[in-house]
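Support reply, case 0932

Customer input (verbatim):
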Amino acid sequence: MSNQHQSTDKRAAVLVAGSWGTALASVLAANGYKVMLWTRSEDQAKGIRETGENGRFLPGVKLPENIHAVTDLKEALGGAELALFVAPSGAMREVARQAAPYLSPDTLVVHATKGFETDTLKRMTTVLSEELGRSADELVVLSGPSHAEEVIRKLPTTVVVASANIRAAEQAQDALMNTDFRVYTNPDVVGVEVAGAIKNIIALGAGLSDGLQFGDNAKAALLTRGLAEIGRLGAAMGANPLTFAGLAGVGDLVVTSTSKHSRNWRAGSMLADGTPLDEVLSRMGMVVEGVKTTRAAHELAKRYEVEMPITAQLYEVLFAGKAPRTAVEHLMGRLRTHEIEELV
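Our regenerated output:
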């Protein structure tokens, strides 16, 4: 690491120290930021400080020296030019509420969490806006095909940052972009957030299909029809359909539905052999966003009166005890329909 990076006075805060938060902290560190990586666990912070690794989530990868693990939010956020929220969707409101008193009005706020708040069905920018007392238009969302395990190893990755405020999006782009981590901007916050959330459901279905050994044809159909579900719900919520053909849409859907790194794909493949959901989640040891998102999307489909058959069948598997094989058979046996019906 160059001395130039060590002597920086640029500061960023990353909340929390999961695998994705840690990977994004490493991107900011490579770009010369002093990064305060916040965790509520003193044991985790101590482990990172003593070993230079996030042993729980990304074992075997040394972190840059300009990443500092802390448990004090005031320390984490003091002087930060950028605050990057990467809490799981279920914890985002609480983390934002705790962070709010220490956040400077000048700090750029970005989030990189894919999911909805289950009880309220709100997107993460809405949750952050409410808790931080900021206009949602000022906030930035980061999404796209990006496994933490690859980003931390500096493998080529391309993502999108979306904001209604193009200057805010460009600030985030400037902070994060480097030769390994390419960043595009997009004004469609709703589309980027909906795509990032719903693709986790389709990835669960892809894992289920692979676990049942249904083959590549079935998975290709599942991803394609899954993209149609993302597009239908997104359009009903006000998104730009073009977003779903981009990195946040088809890009993220493909990587999450086909990779061994994908928690959602792994969870789906475990469900296929009859492992109960509670046991799957216990064995994973990490948040599987697609499970909660299935419940939220099932409600959103009713609210916006859109057809989401894959989501509906996965909801039955996860929460109503339906056999995975039966669910896939029901999907394949649905009444005939036109492929482009939802876009006309």
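We compared this against your earlier run and they match. Two observations from our side: The CA atoms of residues 4 and 32 lie 7 Å apart. Confidence is low (pLDDT under 50) at residues 1-7. Please reopen the case if you see a mismatch on your end.
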